[in-house]
Design a protein that fits this description.
mainly beta, 10-stranded antiparallel sheet, 0% helix, globular
């Protein structure tokens, strides 16, 4: 069963918290209270840890940045971006050995 609650921050932001079976599953945040969700934090693997951040940086309703913490160490391991805002991911930056340094920067034209 899923329950959604609304919370208001001192900074004027509004958060919608979705709980499933007593655990937070998703938090949607309207940071500037313009009626558009700017960030969504999600538990993608069901372990009760929010591990993915979806960002709509231009308020068009399309996610253009995805941040993932795949090993739950509190550091972002994977970033996917839609730099030209066409709805397709253009760039992926990964840190598969979790040392804080991207292994390779992959774009549409190959690696750089």
């Amino acid at each position: 069963m899923s329950d959604v609650s609304e919370e208001h921050g001192a900074d004027g932001s509004t958060s919608y918290v979705e709980e499933r079976d007593g655990f937070v599953h998703k938090v949607s945040v309207d940071q500037d209270s313009d009626g558009y969700i700017d960030r969504v934090y999600v538990d993608t693997d069901g372990d009760h840890v929010l591990d993915t951040v979806l960002v709509d940086s231009d308020d068009n309703g399309v996610v253009d940045i995805v941040l993932r913490d795949t090993n739950h160490d509190g550091k972002v391991d994977y970033i996917a971006e839609d730099r030209d805002h066409d709805g397709l991911i253009d760039t992926v930056v990964a840190d598969t050995d979790y040392d804080g340094v991207p292994d390779v920067h992959r774009g549409l034209g190959g690696t750089s």
